[in-house]
Amino acid sequence: MRRVSALASVLNVVLTPALASRRDSARTWSKLVAAAEADQRFTFDYDRQWLDDLEFAFDCYTQVKGMTPMGWLGVKAEFAGRLVNRLRVRRLREAHPEIAEEPIERPVFIIGLPRTATTLTHKILAGSPGHRGPLTWEMYNIDLEQPPEVRDARIAEVAKGLSMLEKLMPVFPSQHPMSATGPEESFLIVPHTHYHLTRAPVPHYAEWLETHDRVPEYLYLKESLQVLQYGRERRRWILKSPMDTFNLREIQTVFPDAIFVWNHRDPMTVIASVCSLNETAMGLMLRRVDRHAQGRRFLDLLSGGIARARQARPHLRPGSVIDVPYHRLNADPYTYVPELYEKIGAQWGPKDEANLQRSLERPTDSRKHEYALADYGLTQADVDEAFGDYIKLVTHLN
After folding, report:
1. Interior/surface letters 9-28, b for 16+ CB within 10 angstroms, e for the rest
2. Cβ–Cβ contacts within 10 Å for residue 123, how many?
3. Between vectors from CA 383 to CA 381 and to CA 384, what angle results, nearest 5°?
């Protein structure tokens, strides 16, 4: 299975001079900050800690060995976008103080290991008439309602980027389909999550993240949702990111009435699938992916996330966690999904049934997504040891 196209290889040769800006990361960072401030006509004068934290993450990427030119340009583009979004949110909240009063009521956070049908669950719940998820193009452009021509241009720009991504990584759409106008994972808003650990080996960032206070990250998520909601129809937010699984207590601190929909699937299958997906993504970022090192890194990361979530669960508001067994959801979605609606306090109707049918009609791809634990230097015994009795819990739930 070819994960990265010949086009990507050619572009990496052509774009090699772009790596020069990586050698002077402080100067490159200063340019990104100055460009964001010029774009928004707003400054980071009163947001220095946030800026310093983001610069640290940026600097960690500059230390990654074997990064490709396209990988580096992708890092720069991501951080440039995060800078602009932060300033725009700050500027809009200053211009419209009433944004801070926008209620974010009973949001639903879909959590669990990656590859546990969290995307399907998100698509179904966010498509309900009374619900909404943050759309991909919105998270790249956190803003108030804009004229149709501005909105269409932003959607077109994001769609163009996703189309190029498909050309560079032909198998990626079959592993994780994305749409500019569809709901997507909220790590596109939250600056500091374990998402960065899935993009490249960044050990210094991993160490820093363990002691970093993540409550401010979710305060920023709330501020961003308030901007996206202000002046628009208020609907219940449906949010999804497997990396939220690490931060349940922090989320409840910011969103006291949050509901957690926790999807469960056998980690034996999950780990190999996650490694395969991220090998594709890392193939664009790195000249060479060490599959065995990647396998160990993801096993430790994800088993640690589940352990952290299980430790947090007894401290959450009673009734705030709803368990979703992967196999039961897949086996009989037309029975299980209406039951899930009832559990989260939502109304199931004809439009929801039609949305469920559309969501289940995901196009198949002739390129089969194949993976095995052994490909990543792992055994069933490794997974058993890492996840402990969580595997028995998943078996019981399913």
Report:
1. eebbeeeeeeeebbeebeeb
2. 23
3. 60
pTM flag (> 0.90):
yes
Query: Would you say residue 224 has pLDDT above 50?
Result: yes
Q: Name the residue type at position 377.
A: G
Strands (E), the chain: 108-112, 131-132, 236-240, 259-264, 321-325
Closest to 193 in 3D by CA, of 225, 217, 229: 217
The count of other CB atoms within 10 Å of the CB of residue 77 is 12
What residue type is 22 in one-letter code? Answer: R
Do the Cβ atoms of 234 and 359 come closer than 8 Å?
Answer: no
Report the distance separating Cα 119 and Cα 260, nearest Å: 15
Residue 93 neighbours by CB distance under 10 Å? 16
Coil, strand, or helix at residue 112?
strand
CB environment 151-166: b (16+ within 10 A), e (fewer): eeebbeebbebbeebb
Q: Please say if the pLDDT value at position 378 is more than 80.
A: yes
Q: Which residues, at least 6 apart from 184, have a Cβ–Cβ distance to it below 8 Å? A: 133, 134, 135, 136, 139, 178
Kindly give, in sequence order, each residue whose CB lies less than 8 Å from that of residue 46, ignoring residues fewer than 6 positions away: none
Spatial CB neighbours of 383, under 8 Å, sequence gap ≥ 6: 267, 268, 271, 299, 373, 391
Helix 380-387 crosses helix 267-285 at what angle (to 10 degrees)?
A: 100
pLDDT band of 353, cuts 50, 70, 90: very high
CA–CA dist 92, 335 (Å, integer): 44
How sure is the predictor about 2, in pLDDT bands with cuts at 50, 70 and 90?
Answer: confident
- Measured CA to CA, the distance from residue 278 to residue 275 in angstroms comes to 5
CA angle 281, 125, 298 (to 5 degrees): 30
Q: Which pLDDT score, from 0 to 100, does residue 272 have?
A: 92
Return the SS3 of 322.
strand
